[in-house]
C-alpha cells in the first residue's frame, strides 16, 4: 500500500520534508538564542548602570562616543548653562511629568544636554526652575542620544516652542546656533528641588521591540516545522485513500474530452 512512497514524485516530497524540518528547527533555535542574548545584555547593562553609579566621575571627553561600555558611566563637564527646554510625557515612579533639560555650553564650544531633574504634571516653563548662572561643573550619568519612537521615547511632533520630544543631538541642533554633543547627562542629584532622573541602560540592550520580534520569529519557525509534518501526513493519507478507492472501483470515470465522438453502434 505504501510503495508509492518510493516513486520519484514522492522521493522529491520526502527529501523536501527531511530538509525543511531541520532548517525550521535551526532557524527557530537561532531566533531563540538571539532573544536570550538580548535578555543577557539587558541584565548586564542594568547591573552596569548600578555599578557605574559608584565609580569616580571622568571627564566627558574621555567617555565619548557613547557605547554599551560607557553608557551610564559617571561623567563631569564644566561650562555655563544656556538654552532650557522641557521634555514632556516622561514617567517617574508611576507618575506622568516632564524633564527639565538645559544645554551646558562647555569650554570647547559645544553644548552638553543636561537633564537637571523631573517635575510632575503638564510641562510648564513657568514652573521649571531657572538654571544656575555663572560657570558650573556638573556630574551625572552619561546617556546616549534617544531615538524617537524607541524605548518609550515619543515621536510626537508639533510641540510648543521650548519643548522637545527626544533628547537627541539631531533634534537639538536645529534649536540652537552651536554644536551639540551626541550624548546627554542626567544629574545624580536633582537641581533646585527637582527629582533626579535615574540613568537607563544602554540603547538596544533592553527587552524592546526587536527582542520580542526574535521571540515571535522563534514561534513562527517552530510552527512552520509542525506545518510541514502535518502536510506530509495529510498528503500520505490522501494518497492512501485514493489507492483504496481505486482498488474498490469507486473512482469516477473520466469525463470525455471535448470533440470526442461516441462509438458507432
Please provide a written account of the structure.
The protein has 265 residues and is an alpha/beta fold. Helix content is 33%, strand content 21%. It has a five-stranded mixed barrel. Strand 2 and strand 3 (95-106) form a beta hairpin. The longest helix is centred in the N-terminal third of the chain and has 45 residues, at 8-52. 25% of the residues are buried. The mean pLDDT is 83.
Overview in brief:
The protein has 265 residues and is an alpha/beta fold.
Report the biggest beta sheet as strand number plus sense, adding barrel if it closes: 5 strands, mixed, barrel
Query: What's the helix-strand series?
Result: HEEEEEHEH
Q: Please list the strands of the largest sheet in the order they lie side by side.
A: 2-3-4-6-5
Q: Which word captures the global form?
A: elongated
Average pLDDT, all residues: 83
The poorly predicted ranges are none
Task: Please tell me how large the radius of gyration is.
Answer: 32 Å
Q: N- to C-terminal separation?
A: 40 Å
User: How many helix segments?
Assistant: 3
Computed structural class: alpha/beta
How many strand segments? 6
Strand content: 15-25%
Q: Helix fraction?
A: 25-40%
